[in-house]
Amino acid sequence: MYIERLRLKGFKSFGGSHDLPFSPGMTAVVGPNGSGKSNILDALAWVLGEGSPMKLRISRQQELLFQGTAASSAAKECDVILTLRDSDRVSTIRRTFSPDTGSVLFHDGQKIRLQDLDEVKRMLRLGGETFAFIGQGEVAETIRQRPLQRRMRLEVLF
Amino acid sequence: MYIERLRLKGFKSFGGSHDLPFSPGMTAVVGPNGSGKSNILDALAWVLGEGSPMKLRISRQQELLFQGTAASSAAKECDVILTLRDSDRVSTIRRTFSPDTGSVLFHDGQKIRLQDLDEVKRMLRLGGETFAFIGQGEVAETIRQRPLQRRMRLEVLF
Amino acid sequence: VGTLFGNALTDIAARFSDLFRHLLGGGEARLELLEGDSFWDSGVDIVARPPGKKMQSLAQLSGGEQSLTGISLLFACMEVAAVPLAVLDEVDAALDEYNLLRFAALAREYATRLQLIVMTHRRATMERADVLYGVTMSEPGLSQVVGINLEDWR
Amino acid sequence: VGTLFGNALTDIAARFSDLFRHLLGGGEARLELLEGDSFWDSGVDIVARPPGKKMQSLAQLSGGEQSLTGISLLFACMEVAAVPLAVLDEVDAALDEYNLLRFAALAREYATRLQLIVMTHRRATMERADVLYGVTMSEPGLSQVVGINLEDWR
Ligand SMILES: Nc1ncnc2c1ncn2[C@@H]1O[C@H](COP(=O)(O)OP(=O)(O)OP(=O)(O)O)[C@@H](O)[C@H]1O
Ligand SMILES: Nc1ncnc2c1ncn2[C@@H]1O[C@H](COP(=O)(O)OP(=O)(O)OP(=O)(O)O)[C@@H](O)[C@H]1O
Ligand SMILES: [Mg+2]
Ligand SMILES: [Mg+2]
Questions:
Q1: Which residue does chain C place closest to A150, by CA atoms?
Q2: How far, in Å, from the CA of C52 to the mean position of ligand 2?
């Protein structure tokens, strides 16, 4: 199972539409400070169900929407589509947000609730997926957890 | 006012005696991971009165003492001497620790208490000295403080 | 402890120890299950000792040593739990040139078994990727992603 | 607010804004005194906007932008409060090559007015030092410091 492509629209600094195919092996994302690299990690975490404002580095849901620039207008909604491939099976997870509708999730075109997403992720063997999402400056944090916290994070993988 | 030299004996990974003259301008300290660079910052903070185990990255005072290696025996006490120069005036601040005597401070050879050190530092215009000690991974923390905490740290400088 | 988790923990501990020794060139690393009176005082403790050094608390490890220990544990868990993908945002920032090369080689090796997406500023890591994306601001405030041809770049 | 601190804060804010624009090549940064009903609700707030971007919260700044903002505030305070020395442990770790050069040049400039001791793995910072120390382990577990002749090294 791997991420075949990520499509972003109006998500954080990614105004307009963007389409990123990923390698099933190693993809490196490089670029100057403030260019948008960590925003790509945020998009991947968000579409896979991440809900913590701290992890997403926002203080209001509104801050997920492209705020606009001198030349481009702000987005009214944001839309992230993840295409996952497992040998010949392909499935998509999609998440949109707008202030009117709130956040809406889809799996292969069907609307689902957030709690249904856990089941979908287990089917795709992505159960512990946010386990292996390490935010900037957090790599040493994995060893600074208290023993019980560490145990609980590990148990969810099995 | 600047640090003319730092002498370390038995402090953390610095077993034996070490004598480091510093430039009044810019001194860069380089070396592999785990070689002892941050331990030098700890020595400078400690001799200038730092008492927080978290800032010193220890859990017991004992951990200030050189723990020994296969070839060198552990230290029974640690001793840090800081020589400060202000044009033609020179003064020293010294701090020693051993499990029997605890931590002892000296200024120009005279034993002083920790609270006296604040006065000595003010005289040397080092009042806010730990203000400008930025530990590893802490540079972004200076902007993540709450407004009141930030105000109190700034006020101590004036 | 449930046997499933108990067995997995034994496997993770074994891999963690191997990876730690591989990344740091020696030393030892262990996972210990603390069995308290109740569920709430039990947990998983980490013991890590860099090569040639005495046993000490995790807080005494240097910044780079903490990163390497965290990376070892992460890769060990991903392998044993068959986690298919990881996204790592500048996990190589605190590493010296020597440890950076060991990390980059490890990432290259693991990328044959699972998908890795890494954000980085370090050249050694970029050079070992299969696909390289450059993120820039096409106008201030607007991100743009362009594929970089690795052959040209190397 | 005491007038001494109030005046100092105005000076710090002015320098902070200058240094921020210098390091990031534009944008704006401000310090705002929050006056609450009591002393406990008042404080000093930071507003920072990178060049070409809209006003946003500090949490939305990137890792590198947060480092540059922290460095600007630190140098501004050191200058106004006449703090004679600073010890900076890998403050340049999150910077890209371009911002690293700007930081290294700024450190070089400030080192004419105050003493700077910096721990670093980045070449651009090492190259601008007056004195360079190498820390190694003469035997595993035992630190040793050797002076490095900058001429040979450059
Ligand atoms: N909703 C939004 N609309 C527009 N821009 C946004 C939004 N949220 C965040 N940003 C911008 O994204 C930028 C940060 O991007 P990001 O954290 O991904 O940078 P980065 O490439 O990871 O940089 P670094 O190398 O410093 O870590 C910030 O400068 C911020 O202005
Ligand atoms: N009391 C002690 N006795 C002996 N060694 C110690 C003691 N306290 C800490 N150490 C050792 O010092 C080492 C860490 O040193 P330090 O944190 O200064 O490394 P560093 O050069 O800053 O590395 P990095 O580049 O990874 O930040 C640890 O490996 C630890 O074993
Ligand atoms: Mg980032
Ligand atoms: Mg260090």
A1: C44
A2: 12
CA dist B94 to B8, B19, B56, B126, Å? 10, 14, 17, 15
**Helix axes D3-24 and D63-80, enclosed angle (nearest 10):** 140
- In contact, C11 and C43? CB cutoff 8 Å: no
**Cβ-contact C115, A3 below 8 angstroms:** yes
CB-based contact, A140 to chain B, within 8 Å: yes
When pLDDT is cut at 50, 70 and 90, the band that residue D150 belongs to is confident
Chain A partners (3+ C-beta pairs within 8 A):
B, C, D
Q: Which residue of A has its CA nearest to C71?
A: A139
| Cα gap C77→A129, rounded to integer Å | 12
| The pLDDT of residue A130 is above 70 | no
State the smallest CA–CA distance between residue A80 and chain C in angstroms. Answer: 15
Any atom of ligand 1 within 6 Å of the Cβ of A78:
no
Report whether residue A25 contacts ligand 1, using a CB cutoff of 6 Å: no
Q: Which of D85, D91, D136, D149 to mutate to test the interface with B (most CBs of B within 10 A)?
A: D85
Q: Which residues of B137-150 are buried (b: 16+ CB within 10 A; e: fewer)?
A: bbbbebbeeebbeb
pLDDT > 80? residue D1? no
**Interacting residues of D85 by C-beta distance below 8 A, sequence separation 6+:** B1, B2, B3, B126, B129, B132, D114, D115, D116, D117
Query: Ligand 2: distance of its center to the CA of C93 in Å?
Result: 18
In a mutational test of the D interface, the residue from A33, A55, A57, A139 whose CB has the highest number of chain D CBs within 10 Å is A33
Residue A57 near residue D59, CB atoms below 8 Å: yes
Provide the mean pLDDT of chain D.
92
Quote the CA–CA distance of B122 and C103 in Å, as a whole number.
46
Among candidate residues C69, C75, C102, C97, the one with its CA nearest the CA of residue C88? C75
Asked if C60 and B137 come within 8 Å (Cβ–Cβ), the reply is no
What the block records as the tokens of A13 is 């600094």
Q: Given an 8 Å threshold on Cβ–Cβ distance, is D56 in contact with A34?
A: no
Could you give phi then psi for residue B133, rounded to 5 degrees?
-105, 110
User: Average of pLDDT values for B44-72?
Assistant: 94
Kindly state the helix (H) or strand (E) to which residue A83 belongs, with its residue range.
Answer: strand A78-86
Instruction: Return all residues near D148 (Cβ < 8 A) that are at least 6 apart.
Output: B30, D132, D133, D134
What does the pLDDT look like over C27-80, one tens digit per residue? 999 999 888 777 667 889 999 999 989 888 888 999 999 999 999 999 999 999
Q: A34-63: buried (b, 16+ CB within 10 Å) or exposed (e) per residue?
A: bbbbbbbbbbbbbbbbbeeeebbbbeebeb
Closest-CA residue of B relative to A137 is B137
